[in-house]
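Per reviewer request, we include the raw input and output of the structure prediction for the construct analysed in the revised manuscript.
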Amino acid sequence: MDGMTEPMLDRDGEVARFERAAAGWSERAGATTVPVPAEVAAALLVEGASDRAACLEAFRLLGVDPAAAGVAVLPMGGAMSVRRFVELLRPAQLRLHGLCDAGELRFFERAGLDAASVSVCRPDLEGELLRALGAERAEAVLAREGDLSLFRTFQRQPAQRERPVLAQLHRFLGTTSGRKEHYGRVLTAELAPAELPAPLREAAEGVLGA
């Protein structure tokens, strides 16, 4: 690529180091104070790795390098950790925005984030992405990733046979460790910028202050 570095793949520097250090703030790992570098102006708080993967891909589709914009994308290891993250980040006066599943909104509200600072996926991010793509396009992604035959086998399970295809796809994404994170990225990448689910676009724009 003529010696140029792909901007979305270069996540070195202060923002990326802060993201890695903040990974220890989950409830399970306990909190360790991490200084917030001056390069970090905002933080997007997401539940887990699959949400982070989708958000990074959404930023790419929107033509934004979050690290260059001073945005840290922080997976929290679950919604119940959001209060801890907010308490540790608020003293730095960062712009905070959350992305969560509908069933986890109460944790973000209890952490003190107002409605304008939380983007809510219904029922969750995978559901939003699958609706945006539709069953045919989602299955085409599975085929390209080498998982379509596994999905066809999954569809034949008694518990799945009568379910709508989108419901089958949604369940399939959660059946193997790492699959949700992988498909969070590749399903988002399949969308045009105008097709991004509203919560994902709102989260990106909200944390950027757009």
